[in-house]
Amino acid sequence: MRSAKVLYKNKEAGVLAQQDDGTFVFHYHPQWVEDASKPPISLTLPKTHEPYQSRHLFPFFYHMLPEGTNKQVICHKFRMDEDDHMGILMAVAKTDAIGAVSVLKTDML
Fold first, then answer.
1. Which DSSP state fits 1?
2. How many domains in the chain?
3. pLDDT per position as a tens digit, 55-95
4. Which of 41, 67, 82, 86 is the 20 to 30 Å CA partner of 30?
5. Per-residue b or e along 62-89, where b marks 16 or more CB atoms closer than 10 Å to that residue's CB
């Protein structure tokens, strides 16, 4: 399993994980859900105590990935497969993300 902290304006909102079977899980921290002043990270991922599950990387996170030549350069630099969406996301979205959301690799939960 691989996991990453999901930060909104440098505050930890939740955790994104890729399970050993390749599926993805995203869940908000309970404190984030219960704090009315904290927004959802995306309109497609409204705040809830229930985890989101998907066979594919959630569209919100997928659209944070580089494309084309930029993707090829990143994959070559980090020696990653171009289909390793979680690996690419963790490599680039910690510092090179557009918007308020960033993704930081963590140790296994």
1. -
2. 1
3. 999 999 999 998 999 999 999 999 999 999 999 999 888 87
4. 86
5. eebbbeeeeeeebbeeeebeeeebbbbb
